[in-house]
Design goal:
The protein has helices spanning about 20-30, 40-50, 65-75, 95-100, 115-125, and strands at about 10-15, 35-40, 55-60, 85-90, 105-110. The chain is an alpha/beta fold.
Length: about 130
């Protein structure tokens, strides 16, 4: 798909590692998404409520609030029920995936993972907005 394939689609990237944010941001921007960044779970919560993103990609282990707690908080807000949440983690323990899904994540992925795979997954989770809804 070209860069205009996902106009008006917003992704919120939440991670405490600057290099991860830069790499994911570059790939989502290249695919036509509008990108919003947050560096921890508390900031991620605030940005999600302010921006109402279509997709939220968050790390599991972050300072101030982890991805599981952030996910539970976001799922408690009806206005964010259309936002798709992808949680990422280097923790491969099978219970983490179960915990993430129970908290409301749509997808749990183990790191390392190619940024292009995350973008493709986000595209598959995000229906294009109709111009009448903009």
């Amino acid at each position: 798909m070209n860069n205009s394939s996902f106009p008006n689609q917003t992704v919120l990237l939440v991670d405490d590692e600057e290099d991860i944010l830069e790499m994911l941001s570059y790939n989502f921007l290249k695919s036509g998404f509008r990108v919003v960044l947050a560096k921890n779970g508390v900031e991620g919560q605030r940005m999600a409520i302010e921006e109402m993103p279509d997709v939220i990609v968050a790390d599991l282990w972050m300072p101030e609030m982890d991805g599981i707690r952030m996910c539970r908080y976001l799922r408690s807000h009806p206005a964010l029920d259309r936002s798709r949440i992808i949680l990422l983690s280097a923790d491969s323990h099978k219970n983490r995936a179960i915990e993430a899904i129970k908290a409301g994540a749509d997808v749990y992925l183990n790191k390392p993972i190619a940024p292009s795979h995350i973008v493709q997954l986000a595209k598959s989770l995000t229906p294009l907005k109709s111009p009448a809804l903009l």
